[in-house]
Design brief:
The complex is a heterodimer.
Chain A (H helix, E strand, L loop, with lengths): L1 H21 L9 H19 L5 H24 L1 H8 L3 E5 L2 E2 L1 H6 L4 H10 L8 E6 L5 E5 L1 H4 L1 H5 L12 E5 L2 E2 L4 H4 L3 H10 L7 E6 L5 E5 L5
Chain B lengths: L3 H41 L3 H25 L2 H11 L2 H4 L5 H23 L3
Helix pairs in contact in B: 1-2, 1-5, 3-5
The chains are: A alpha+beta, B mainly alpha.
């Protein structure tokens, strides 16, 4: 009995330490690799508690390996967008200007019922109200409502947006041009390069560049430590 | 970046433990198997004193390394090995020669099970 208590304490302390090490990411919505880590760690931690014959080191060793791999994997995901897309996938636009992109839904194996349910969770009962509906890599749907549906004032007074009716679009992420996003932003690669050059900074030094709906740019440069 | 260092340390610790455990178990199970085989062959040659000496060495080696073995090997497997090995001293005589041979072979098989629990691929 004492052994079970001691093992439980050790496993509990270890898991707390590992979750802290994995960071806040682990506590929110889970990416695929994080989900796998969480499931495996919780199962592995219970083994030495249930089976007193199992050596605790042998039982807890896989947890150390999984957590270390998860941290290294997330670091690699930050470093390489291609790697990140391969491991976690990339966000997909499933509703554009009130139109459902059926092909994108099929690729995600997202049924229309799933989409309508996810929309209802966002208090959207008519998909035509949505300017942009994006399925994130963790499977959640985020919506950007059309300007006139964002609040009652816009609808009643028939106010018009300053520019396009869309959220800011990311065109450069971590020094890399997001070519897939350029058509939505209404710019081409050369314009982006010129835009960055005009600010007298290197493209590699750009952490984030977004084109806002009124055509203005939001630029964040990389900090020295990155 | 600050989390990568502990992650690498964890991997190194895990690799170190795995390598140490593997080498340790490999070395100790071989040593123990050799002692049991030596005891078995002594008994076959009717050298009961030699068989007892080898059994004594077997028990000493096991007891000396038990604390580390228990970190890597299932307790029930080790307990079963000692359960088989302990009565062997009583069998090291002419009358129980046959039982001694059988039981030492059982202990060798148990050691092989311990080795397999560590080295079997899947």
């Amino acid at each position: 009995m004492l052994i079970v208590c001691l093992r439980t304490l050790i496993a509990y302390a270890l898991i707390i330490g590992m979750i802290r090490l994995m960071g806040k990411r682990q506590l929110g919505e889970l990416q695929p690799s994080e989900l796998v880590t969480t499931i495996l760690v919780s199962n592995l931690a219970s083994l030495p508690i249930e089976d007193a014959d199992l050596p605790i080191i042998t039982a807890l060793l896989p947890i150390l390996i999984i957590v270390a791999l998860e941290i290294i994997l997330s670091m690699l995901e930050i470093r390489s967008q291609k790697f990140s897309a391969a491991v976690s996938g990339s966000p997909k636009v499933v509703i554009r200007d009130g139109q459902i992109d059926q092909q994108a839904l099929a690729e995600l194996r997202y049924g229309i019922d799933d989409l309508l349910e996810a929309l209802r969770n966002k208090d959207v009962f008519d998909f035509r109200e949505v300017a942009y509906g994006i399925v994130e890599t963790n499977g959640t749907l985020n919506v950007y409502r059309k300007f006139d549906k964002q609040n009652l004032q816009n609808e009643v007074f028939e106010l018009k947006p300053d520019g396009c009716d869309r959220p800011p679009i990311t065109v450069v992420l971590d020094g890399k041009i997001q070519t897939e996003e350029l058509p939505d932003a209404g710019v081409n690669e050369k314009q982006i390069i010129d835009l960055v050059a005009k600010r007298q900074i290197q493209l590699e030094s750009v952490y984030l560049l977004q084109i806002d709906r009124d055509g203005s740019t939001i630029l964040v440069t990389k900090e020295e430590t990155q | 970046m600050k989390r990568v260092v502990p992650a690498v340390v964890l991997l190194i610790v895990a690799a170190g433990l795995t390598i140490y455990g593997t080498l340790f178990i490999n070395q100790k199970t071989s040593e123990l198997t050799d002692l049991l085989n030596a005891a078995h062959s002594c008994c076959t040659n009717r050298d009961y004193q030699g068989a007892s000496d080898n059994l004594e060495k077997f028990c000493q080696t096991f007891n000396k390394n038990e604390a580390i073995l228990i970190l890597f090997v299932r307790r029930d497997l080790l307990a079963e090995l000692m359960r088989i090995a302990e009565p062997l001293f009583d069998y090291a005589n002419e009358e129980m020669r046959y039982d001694f041979c059988i039981e030492t072979q059982r202990a060798v098989t148990q050691l092989e099970i311990i080795r397999e629990s560590q080295f079997k691929l899947i």
